[in-house]
Amino acid sequence: MKHLISLLAFNLLIGCNGEKSNVAPSKDSPEEAATEAPYKDSLGEQQKVTKEAKNTSLPPIPNPMDAEAIMKLWSMDHNPTDFIEDMKIKDRPGTWEGIANFGPARDDLFQSEEYSYDSKWVDRRFTVEKFSSEANGNSYLVATYLPDEDSFILWALNNGEITQAKGKSLEKNGIKWRSTMLSKSAEEFYTSRDSIMKPTNDGFEINESQKFSKDGTVVGFSEAKAYWTGFPGMKPLGKKEVLELAKLPHKPDLKDPENKWMLAKAGIWKFKDTISTRDSEQEEEFTYGNVTKRVDESHTVFTTFKDEDILNIGIAVPNPNKETEGILRVLYFPNNDELVRGISFLDKETGTDTFKSLRRRGFEDSVSVEAERKPQSKRGSSNFARNFRGVVKFRDDGKLMRIVKFEGEWVKELPAEGEKLSNEWLKKKLAEIDSLEEAE
Q: Looking at the structure, do residues 369 and 432 belong to the same domain, yes or no?
């Protein structure tokens, strides 16, 4: 990522359409949580908990929380309206990817497993999740808060069996969980499971540590880390998806988005970066062009070029949930075969777009990017923005290494077919990138 610095300035902050989209765990050690004897529970105890939870203003908890109840909650649409604050310390809603490492000791985690899951908020109080992995297929989880106890409870459905755990919030964010009901198949290997879940990086990453015990003896550990990849129900954007979207033509007849004065006008842009580095007093300049197009109401595509070579292709996707503003940005650099993901938030009062980079599974890069961009247009204007200014800061392990100041100016409308930078030209260049990918 370090060699992509001068190309990120505009692309991480280019405007998105802002319309509703049609896209519909490493944690601290839990040693202190697992010294006492394991809980023994039954469906009767589970029903007692759900009955007590009914004595609140929240929707009742299904009684019993069986496979049918879990799948019914999973079938509901994500709805953050009036969702209880106590549950917001768990996973950020959306799609996630993670990796877990298992072993008999903390310093001997020799077995790894990749997984993904989709998390959403439903019925004002429930977080529901669908987990998928090659080894274990699909499983489902439901969690909620119990106001009378100031605690959390979750149920998991896997291979037709229900497990249950209770949790308490940690002083510095996160939840400490302890199993209260295990499946029969799990009890062959362990009789209690303790874990600590902690969100990091503003909730875009989750760390989880687990300890497994059998009859009071520790038999295994796991460490997991998960990374947020997109909004609820959204198909993750990888290289293939980015290239497919980039081939689509601009659609000029789409409905204008809200706050269009904050967003880049479709067409040809020219940009200049002024780059200063920590170890040099001299500044460098870098100029490049950009093709911006709206391919549907959910995706804005921007393609950066220099001397007719495509440097990167980016996709901007707005959060379909209007109660939480945000734009997911994904960039693909074909020359380096590298994918960069980030999130930005729009301030509707000032027009400022604030961006931060996000890490991915398997790519623990120490370089992080933060940026800010403002349109040089009047607030509330009925026209798309034609000029932008901004700054991008690059840090390595938190140390500021480079600053890029950029200026962008809209040049002209998108060209007709057959002309340079037309969609036909872009498709030809993208086909060349496709062929190189297949050859590898």
A: yes
